[in-house]
Design goal:
Length: about 180
């Protein structure tokens, strides 16, 4: 998808998440209204996922953006979103390590959920490699793990087990979105 096509897509779909369009189409076919999900990185995606699921927990690291998304969710009358502000504990450039001596609070937020209770997890915020790792046991069998920006030099999906089938991968000018299903 070229830059002009991407711009046109954004203009025609102002409520869609900032993910590759083919990934959004895949999600539209595979998400169900009874699902419970978790996302790191809030925004348009928060509203979009909340409208397609029973419950969504969303973690946002920036206070001003958290306030903005909270207003957006209230204006949309969404009552099934648990939006949390969890600030970064490291400078942004240091949030892509594969491990930390102590798990930061941002990725730790998912630990409030019991193992095998989530239908989908979206990794699109900071601490991506660690978030992907701590999300694995939280997904139900058959659960969906979506990681955006899997085309980055430091792969945020390093912890996804090789036994998990990659069920979708697509890209636009800005991003590559990959989706795995837990066996």
């Amino acid at each position: 998808m070229g830059r002009i096509q991407n711009w046109l897509y954004e203009k025609r779909h102002p409520g869609h998440p900032w993910l590759a369009p083919d990934a959004i189409a895949w999600l539209e076919q595979n998400l169900r209204p009874d699902m419970c999900g978790f996302e790191w990185g809030s925004g348009r995606s928060t509203l979009w996922f909340a409208k397609r699921s029973a419950h969504l927990t969303s973690i946002e690291s920036y206070a001003a953006w958290y306030q903005q998304v909270t207003r957006m969710a209230q204006e949309a009358s969404l009552t099934n979103v648990d939006l949390r502000h969890v600030p970064l504990e490291h400078p942004e450039a240091h949030t892509y390590a594969f491990d930390y001596p102590q798990l930061p609070a941002n990725p730790s937020a998912i630990l409030d959920h019991s193992d095998a209770t989530l239908d989908f997890v979206v990794v699109d915020g900071w601490y991506r490699p660690v978030c992907a790792r701590v999300a694995l046991p939280k997904l139900k069998p058959g659960g969906i793990l979506l990681i955006d920006n899997t085309d980055w030099n430091d792969p945020p999906h390093v912890h996804v087990p090789k036994t998990w089938p990659l069920v979708h991968r697509s890209r636009n000018v800005l991003t590559e979105t990959s989706i795995w299903r837990k066996p």
